[in-house]
Amino acid sequence: MQSKYQLQSTSLKETDVVELKAYLGLLIFTSVFNSNHENIETLFATDGSGRDIFRAVMSAKRFAILLSALRFDNRVDREVRRKVDPTAPISFIFKSFIENCQNVCGDGQSATIDEILVSFRGRCRFKMYMPMKPCKYGNKIMALTDARNSYLFNAYLHSGKDSDGVGLIDEYKRFSKPTQTVLRLAEPLFGSNRNITADNWFSSIELVNILSKNKLKYVGTLKKNKRETLPSFLPKKN
Predict the structure, then answer these.
(1) How buried is 54 (Cβ within 10 angstroms: 0-12 exposed, 13-18 middle, 19+ buried)?
(2) CA-CA-CA-CA torsion for 198, 202, 208, 214, nearest 10 degrees?
(3) What residues does the PiggyBac transposable element-derived protein domain cover (predicted)?
(4) Helices and strands per DSSP (H, E), number in the chain
(5) What is the pLDDT of residue 204?
C-alpha cells in the first residue's frame, strides 16, 4: 500500500492495544478485498468507491502513520542478530505466528509439503527470482499444510542455501537439502504415524528411511530420471 501523506510533518501520538488491534483488523480486510496493493486514499475514499469499514475505524492519515511506524523487532540489536539470522527483522513475529498456528489447530492425518513464493519486489537480500511462478519475484516460504483443509501448520522463510537445516541436529544436517526441509517442517509430527505428501524434488529413499524411523509415512511423485527410480518402473521400448 502507498500513501501521499508527508509523515515527517505530521504530529504523532501514542498508540495502544485497542488501536493496534483495529489496525491489524483493517490489514486483514485489505486481503478480503484483494486491496494489498491499492492506494490508501482509494481505500478511504468518500465518493462511494472506498470501503466504509476503513473510515469507520480510523482516518486515512492515522492508518498511514501506523503503516509507516510499525516495527516487529528491536532496531538497536538488529544488525547483530542479522549476522546469524538474515530474517532477523521479522523472525520473532513469524515464529510467533507459526506457534499460534500449531496451538490453535492440530494437524490432520495427512500433510503436504511444498514451496510458496510470496510476491515481493522491495529490497531484501534473500529475495528470489522463480520464472515458473506467476509472480516471479518474492520471498520463498517452505510450508507444511493439512492435506484436507490446507491449514498452515509449520513454515519457515528460505533465506539462503543453509537455511533448510537451521535447528536440526548434526545427524540430519548431513542429508540433502530437500530432506532437511522435510525434517525441519515435519519435526512437530514425529512419532504421530501421520502421512507426508510432497513432490519429486523432495522424494528420495533417504527421506523415506529417516521419516520411517520417526514414525511418519511418505507419499511422493518420482520422475523417471530420479536416481531412486527402478528400471522395472520405466516404460519399455517394445
Answers:
(1) buried
(2) -80
(3) 10-234
(4) 9, 6
(5) 93
pLDDT at residue 12 greater than cutoff 90: no
What are the extents of the domains in the chain? 7-69, 105-220
**E strand intervals along the chain:** 110-119, 128-129, 137-146, 152-157, 195-198, 217-220
* Whole-prediction pTM: 0.76
Task: Give me the pLDDT at residue 189, please.
Answer: 94
Query: What's the rounded Cα separation, in Å, for the pair 33 and 50?
Result: 11
Measure the CA–CA gap between 154 and 1, rounded to whole angstroms.
Answer: 27
The closest of 188, 32, 164 to 106, measured between CA atoms, is: 188
Nearest 5°: the CA angle 202, 209, 197 is 40
Q: What is the DSSP string of 30-57?
A: HHHTT-TTS-HHHHT-SSSSS-HHHHHH
